[in-house]
Design brief:
By secondary structure, this protein is an all-alpha fold. It folds into two domains: 256 residues, no CATH class; 65 residues, no CATH class. Helix 3 packs across helix 11, helix 6 runs antiparallel to helix 11 and helix 12 runs parallel beside helix 14. The radius of gyration is 47 Å and the shape is elongated. Belongs to the OXA1/ALB3/YidC family. Type 1 subfamily.
């Protein structure tokens, strides 16, 4: 470890200068020789470094998602050229070049952070060895050696002997308890960070070897931190614990606000977004607008959660636009999630009546028909009487172009009258009248 730290000694001076500047600030508040002044100086160094690494963190997220997208193609290449490793490597590099993806981009924050980590280790090791490092002079060296964090000096390790710990004015028990607790917290934060990435922010529709590798790292990294942590000074443990907590919080923010498409985190995000839009009637901020715009642009390539989001907006009376805005729709749910017209509702068939109801309805209609026939027959009889009276008054031998007065050709008088009288009645055999109708 000392050899590696010496290799990064070129950055020791800038790191020591930053620590000294923060120490002046916190020393004026808590006292220059206190553990709070030196401990908070290390924490502030971590925060400053991580703020500067935010652009690299964004590139890491994009690279990781691009690698997840390429996993099916990479698996096909591995199966196709399993016997030819050289051709397999060539095809992999060609795939990376075509997609514009770099596998090392996902490791950029760790690689960029490593020089500062080893430089800090070199500074703290110099403090433990009572050696001047960077801009830290003898006065600052004595102040740092006297600083304790919960009873443990900044420069001691878990594996240090009791004599060395006693020379720094501390007890071995206090050092072991503090360092063990910090190692446990450091490993636990690393495990939780990797676990929330695997359980919430991974596309569950794609099963690839990349997911298996990430799952393995979820258990390997905490073990590595526990093994190497016993050889880290307390100040380095403070640095590493701080950067793990920062990474965990940063990742929680990204998972909540910009989740991976197809993941459980995206389902929860779209559910919150839909609830906000239906309540406020619009999107809020550029992040939400950008998310809606990306979903609309996908069209038929939307995943299950995105289709559910679009359908939910349509049912609530809203329509997502191509620019990411949301407007009130005049027609509710008239289109599907793919933009096609919704199918017309099916026509409902009338309920089938029972046999007794059908017979009862037939009987009632028959009775009405009988009443109508009776009334028609009665009116027909009255007309017949009138017609007979008129025929009796008319002379029988009065010809009208070969027609009789009844309107028949050479027939018996009165036949036409009878025929007219029966015109309103039903043809065929008549039903007997009901006694009450006589």
């Amino acid at each position: 470890m000392d050899t590696i730290a010496g290799f990064f000694s070129f950055i020791t001076t800038p790191v020591s200068w930053v620590i000294v500047q923060f120490h002046k600030l916190y020393g004026a508040i808590f006292g220059p020789d206190t553990g709070w002044a030196w401990g908070l100086s290390i924490v502030s160094l971590v925060i400053l470094i991580r703020i500067c690494l935010i652009p690299l963190f964004v590139k890491q997220i994009k690279a990781t998602r691009a690698m997840q997208t390429l996993q099916p193609e990479m698996k096909k290449i591995q199966e196709r050229y399993k016997s030819d490793k050289q051709r397999q490597s060539e095809e992999m590099m060609k795939l990376y070049k075509e997609s514009g993806t770099n596998p090392l981009s996902s490791c950029l924050p760790i690689l960029a952070q490593s020089p500062f980590f080893f430089a800090l280790y070199h500074v703290l090791n110099g403090i433990a060895s009572n050696k001047k490092v960077g801009v830290i002079d003898q006065q600052l060296l004595d102040s740092a050696r006297d600083a304790h964090i919960f009873g443990a000096p900044l420069a001691v390790k878990f594996t240090d002997s009791a004599d060395k710990v006693a020379s720094l004015g501390a007890s071995l028990t206090d050092v072991r308890v503090v360092t063990a607790l910090m190692i446990i917290l450091m490993s636990a934060s690393q495990f939780f960070t990797q676990r929330q990435l695997m359980t919430k922010n991974v596309d569950t529709t794609v099963k690839t070897p990349f997911m298996q590798q990430q799952k393995m790292l979820m258990y390997v990294f905490p073990i590595m931190f526990a093994v190497f942590g016993i050889n880290f000074p307390v100040g380095v443990l403070v640095y590493w614990l701080t950067t793990n907590v920062w990474t965990m919080g940063q990742q929680m923010y990204v998972i909540r606000q910009n989740p991976t498409p197809g993941s459980k985190a995206q389902a929860a995000y779209l559910e919150r977004l839909q609830k906000h839009i239906t309540t406020a009637g619009k999107t809020r901020g550029r992040g939400q607008t950008r998310a809606v715009k990306a979903i609309v642009a996908k069209g038929r390539d939307r995943n299950e959660y995105e289709r559910k989001f679009i359908n939910g907006l349509n049912k609530a009376g809203f329509a997502a636009q191509a620019d990411g805005t949301v407007i009130v729709s005049e027609t509710v749910a008239t289109t599907t999630e793919d933009g096609a017209p919704a199918a017309a509702p099916k026509r409902q068939q009338p309920k089938r009546q029972s046999k007794s109801k059908r017979q009862a309805g037939t009987g009632a209609s028959g009775a009405k028909a009988d009443d109508a026939s009776t009334d028609s027959a009665a009116s027909g009889g009255a007309d017949a009487k009138t017609s007979l009276t008129k025929s009796e008054d008319t002379p029988q031998n009065t010809p009208a172009k070969g027609k009789t007065a009844g309107g028949t050709k050479g027939g018996q008088p009165g036949q036409g009258t009878r025929s007219k009288a029966k015109s309103g009645q039903r043809k065929g055999q008549q039903r007997p009248k009901h006694p009450s109708k006589k």
